Amino acid sequence: MHRTVFNHGIKLLKPTQRCIPVAVLPTRQSLLLYISNHSLQNRNVSIKTELSGTNVAQPKDANNVAHKQEAPWDIDFTNIVEAYKSKSNYEIFRAAMVFQLCTIGFLVEHGMTISKYMKKVTGKWLFKKSMNMSFYGHFVAGENQDEIRGVVDKLSAHGVGAILDYAVEEDLSEEKAEKLEMDSCKSNVTPEYETMDRYQPHREFSDRRKKVVSARTYFYEGEAKCDDNMNIFLKCIDAVGATTDGGFAAVKLTALGRPQFLLQFSEVLSKGQKLFERFCGKEGNLVDRKFDQLRFETKAAKLGILMSRDESQKWFTWMDRDDSGYVDLLDWNEMIAKHRKFSDLFVVLNPETGDEESLLPKFTDEEEAQMKRMLIRVDALAQRALEKNVRLMIDAEQTYFQPAISRIVMEMMRKFNRKKTVIMNTYQCYLKSAEDNLCTDLALSQREGFHFGLKLVRGAYMEHERERAKQLSYDDPIQPSYEDTNRNYNKLLKIMLEHIKQGGKADVMFASHNEDSVKYALSTIHDLELTPQMQHQVYFGQLLGMCDHITFPLGQAGHRVFKYVPFGPVDEVLPYLHRRAQENRSVLSGSSLERSMLWRELRRRLFKGQIFYKPT
Ligand SMILES: Cc1cc2nc3c(=O)[nH]c(=O)nc-3n(C[C@H](O)[C@H](O)[C@H](O)COP(=O)(O)OP(=O)(O)OC[C@H]3O[C@@H](n4cnc5c(N)ncnc54)[C@H](O)[C@@H]3O)c2cc1C
After folding, report:
1. For residues 40 and 61, is the Cβ–Cβ distance under 8 A?
2. What is the DSSP string of 10-68?
3. Would you say residue 347 lies in a domain?
4. What CATH number is associated with residue 271?
5. pLDDT in tens, 531-545
6. Domain interval for residue 324
7. Are 429 and 510 in contact (CB under 8 A)?
């Protein structure tokens, strides 16, 4: 291998053309199926599909209005009659009681233990009955075909699509979760570079479920388990494909491979970005920053890299993929992800040990093998999704995994989103880096002409992220305040709607329970005068049993709105129910508003003599 030695110990190596095979597409280990019913305009019958032993009825003709005419934007979310007209008095009473129970701290805190104890005392039958009359009945669609079909049909009749979510979760002990995590995140090889603490596993944070209530956590239990997960997803995709055009399945990448690879790849990307900033400076938006050959030479000299003009010309030409005369972040990322030996470019001599160290870590052979296995699984899912006309939405996870997840998703988009949106990424607006991340990926999609699919959320891991950053002494990745997160959400929402207005090839889901965000999205759609066709590229998402006063009016007005609809046996969805209870516990969670609206509607019906009200 040819090497050129420079002063200050930094060396440049010859570029090689070896590529890391990054292809692919994901789904999530949980069965998250979004059944988008807008595409079922011509179907008048419910369709059954076999899904892990459960036949699932599909919605009929919800959301089909938006395509034809502009959906109204000034929706009244305080209209309790409209919000709850799909619910019987019993369902309203049950919902109000469930939210009331969520305010009892002791019950929420010890929910799992209490449920297990109750089951022992009351027996299975009575336990199931009581759960049906409370949390399970409210938050979960059921466990068999008829139960699930009932819920999905009802949503459909009110203009709401369903994203079926196989909500079964293993109730791992803290000890087991910690062991699984530490075993699966530690590399067998001692790294030849200085590692970043942030991308290393730490026992005190290894049970990733701690302080995370609104998202499910997967632990690596071996390659066979990952294959099982993939097979479950394949079945889901088949089920969605058999029943809809353009339905959805959702995926968490941590379900499909060893998380150590995600940590390692994230570290490579993070170090790569820092190195890029040393060349291009820190002025302006990251996506607009770039350097030309002169700057490259100057900065390289400042960093202590000596090279001849010929050499610098050669290196620069190699990096400048589109011959623009500049290297920007897109060029740079491309080099990092695709060229294994890119890391060989930047090697320093450690003055203490005299050893060579790469500024950019390289993958070991084992890590490359792990990566390939994960990508093969994801690719299989993507291929199947493409064949079946299903879209895959990839969840965003913790920041120490997210750079890798996002990068893989973009590679999948590049491969599969050529003609339409098959793959959707997720952007967490509580991150300080959210705007840079979204704008860089949007720019890549524009430059390469593929469809950009995304879900916009605030983010589910705030407390975990903050505490980890504090204890490990790295910068808190989260926005300083809730207001900053809100501002960021609105800003990114607007960027995406403006992009759609300009004819951009994009599909965006605003996944939020925040009424102000939904209103802001609607008013921006109105202000920008999006055509019905453009509105067809915009979706809203909420969970079953949450914020019906937002979901149903949206659906009835003709907007494309979806509920995550979890299903599974009572015993096995308890962790999911426990998290829902925790989420609705705080006074600030929004459930207090919902609770009061539910009671008001119940009182109104009783005063009106609608004791046997039948949902329309
Ligand atoms: C359909 C759907 C899909 C989702 N998918 C994902 C996903 O893939 N990945 C993911 O991470 N989450 C996901 N979430 C969860 C989401 O990120 C939020 O945690 C949750 O929806 C609450 O946010 P909100 O916008 O609904 O409402 P709000 O209640 O208005 O916002 C609460 C959120 O604001 C932020 N926040 C609160 N306090 C502060 C503070 N002091 N400083 C900074 N920020 C603060 C946090 O993100 C918090 O979760 C999803 C949610 C839904 C409904």
Report:
1. yes
2. EEEE-----B---------SSEEEEE-GGGGTT--S----EETTEE-PPP-STT-STTT
3. yes
4. 1.10.238.10
5. 999 999 999 999 999
6. 3-20+265-362
7. no
How far lies 297's CA from each of 156, 294, 311, 313, 374, in Å?
61, 5, 10, 9, 38
* Cα–Cα distance for residue pair 444/465, rounded to 1 Å: 28
Q: How far is CA 545 from CA 47, 485, 522, in A?
A: 24, 25, 22
Which atom belonging to ligand 1 lies closest to the Cα atom of 562? 1
Is 567 in a helix, a strand, or coil?
strand
Task: Flag whether 598 is in a domain.
Answer: no
Q: What length is written for the chain?
A: 616
- Determine, yes or no, domain membership for 104: no
Q: How confident is the model at residue 204 (pLDDT cuts 50, 70, 90)?
A: confident
Query: Which residue in the block uniquely carries the two structure tokens 């990114």?
Result: 492
Whether residue 561 is predicted with pLDDT greater than 90 in this model: the reply is: yes
Q: Is 212 in the pocket of ligand 1 (CB under 6 A)?
A: no
Question: d(Cα 530, Cα 426) in Å, to the nearest integer?
Answer: 23
SS3 of 390, please?
strand
What's 457's DSSP letter? E
Span from the CA of 187 to the centroid of ligand 1 (angstroms): 32
Q: Whose CA is nearest to atom 44 of ligand 1?
A: 482
Averaged pLDDT of the chain:
80
pLDDT digits (tens, 9 = 90+) for 146-163: 787 788 888 888 888 887
What is the gyration radius of the CA atoms in the chain, in angstroms?
25
Answer whether residue 202 is part of any domain: no
The total of structural domains in the chain comes to 1
Burial of residue 588 (number of CB atoms within 10 Å: 0-12, 13-18, 19+):
exposed
Q: Which atom of ligand 1 is nearest to the CA of 564?
A: 1
Q: For 246, which DSSP code?
A: S
* pLDDT single digits (tens) 321-379: 888 999 988 888 777 665 555 555 555 445 455 555 555 566 677 777 877 888 899 99
